[in-house]
Design brief:
The chain has helices spanning 2-6, 25-35, 52-57, 71-76, 92-113, 138-168, 170-175, 181-209, and strands at 14-19, 40-46, 63-66, 80-88, 122-130. The protein has 218 residues and is α/β, with parallel strands linked by helices. It starts with a helix and ends in a 9-residue tail after the last helix.
């Protein structure tokens, strides 16, 4: 069950932030079109792009659509109206898929406005990938190995050690000793925690030296 849900690559319920400095009829229409689609959910509407950094860092949004000033006026004149699309690309595959969905929605909106007998509407989309602009898969998978190694070494090896004590009959000897049960567990866990910490340091060194994974912050 855990792997079935964790390894799914489906992109659903995209949390969208919209930066709309000058709300007008068409920008409201675009927002309504996105909200009417089950795949998108607008969670934030702002007048400037200032709050975007905090929203992405808190993982509150997946995609941000930054509209220009006087969105409707630019489209009405037939100008190539720029729209900035910012995507969380910490997972490169999901980031690319999310950006494709939003691009498709904007293309449908553009086609809807460019009907017969109307002035052609042109939306120029500029893309920006946050946290992994080069879409390197190593930036996702190599740090993820730390969690896998710690799970295998700390949890699995400790469980195997206790099971071996039980099979050999030495666990009863430990239980009748002056040691308390929590002291026995700590004694079994601490060596593997130390080993897990050493392996974590090795993974971090390999990530930086071999795979050029950037390290940011503390």
């Amino acid at each position: 069950l855990l792997f079935g849900y964790a390894l799914r690559t489906d992109v659903r319920d995209l949390r969208v932030a919209v930066v709309d400095p000058t709300p007008d009829v068409l920008s409201l229409r675009l927002r309504g079109r996105l909200e009417a689609t089950p795949r998108f959910r607008i969670v934030n509407v702002a007048a400037s792009s200032g709050p975007l950094d905090g929203l992405f860092e808190r993982r509150a949004v997946d995609v941000a659509i930054v509209l220009p000033n006087s969105f409707a006026e630019g489209l009405a004149r037939g100008d190539r109206t720029p729209v900035l699309l910012v995507t969380d690309a910490s997972d490169p595959n999901s980031g690319t898929t999310m950006q494709s969905y939003v691009r498709a929605a904007l293309a449908d909106f553009e086609s809807e406005l460019s009907g017969p007998g109307r002035t052609p509407v042109r939306i120029q989309i500029a893309s920006r990938m946050r946290f992994n602009p080069t879409l390197e898969s190593a930036n996702l998978f190599v740090p993820g190995l730390i969690a896998l190694v710690l799970t295998l070494v700390s949890a699995l090896m400790t469980a195997i050690s206790l099971s071996r004590e039980k099979e050999q009959g030495t666990l009863e000897v430990l239980l009748v000793s002056p040691l308390r049960p929590w002291q026995i567990i700590v004694g079994k866990v601490l060596p593997y925690l130390g080993l897990g910490f050493a392996i974590t340091c090795l993974v971090l060194v390999a990530a930086r030296v071999v795979f050029d994974v950037p390290l940011r912050g503390s």
